Amino acid sequence: MPNPDKGKIPIEEVFEVDFAEFTEQQIQAIELLSLPGKGGLTFEQIAEKVGISVRTLHRWRDKRNFQKAVTLRAIQNIHHELPEVFTAHIKSCKRGNVRAIELLYKLLGFLIDRQEVNQTVENRTQDNKDIEKDIDRLERLLDEDDKDNKEKPGKVH
């Protein structure tokens, strides 16, 4: 069964973002992605505005710290709307809207979806740190490849 929380970032982690770790292009992408509705832009348009390939943009979007930065900026972009949203939500709950009540309970931590996953790993020859190093090395190679493709005219990226 698919995990509905996969990719969701706990709210307490959202505020642990160090924007100094991002390049100027990544910060530009974060700003555009965090706009409501991505500012009406497609991923292709965002990549073009930032000066990167769509593949690079999607790779960045898969990184947890990048996701946290986009989430934080999105919250900052709409924070002035939140009191009205919460007021409307509470009114829905008071009218007996079961879905609104369920969401409120989840937000408050009273209702938790639980899924049990058992995993067995055999013949493990690498530990997590070795795997993370390999992933970082491969991501650097992909970034270099994207940069080379962007600099060479006539290449498709």
Task: Encode the helix/strand succession as letters.
Answer: HHHHHHHH
Structural class: mainly alpha
Q: Would you count the extended β strands for me?
A: 0
Task: Estimate what percentage of residues fall within beta strands.
Answer: under 5%
What does the main sheet amount to? none
Mean of pLDDT: 84
Q: How many H/I helical runs?
A: 8
Which residues sit in consecutive blocks of at least 5 with pLDDT less than 50?
Answer: none
**Fraction of residues in helix:** 55-70%
- Shape estimate: flat
How would you describe this structure to a colleague?
The chain has eight helices and no strands. It has helices at residues 11-14, 24-33, 43-50, 54-61, 64-78, 82-94, 98-108, 128-151. Helix 2 (24-33) crosses helix 5, helix 3 (43-50) crosses helix 4 and helix 6 (82-94) crosses helix 7. It has one domain (11-113, 129-151). The two termini are 35 Å apart. The protein has 157 residues and is mostly helical. Helices cover 59% and strands 0% of the residues.
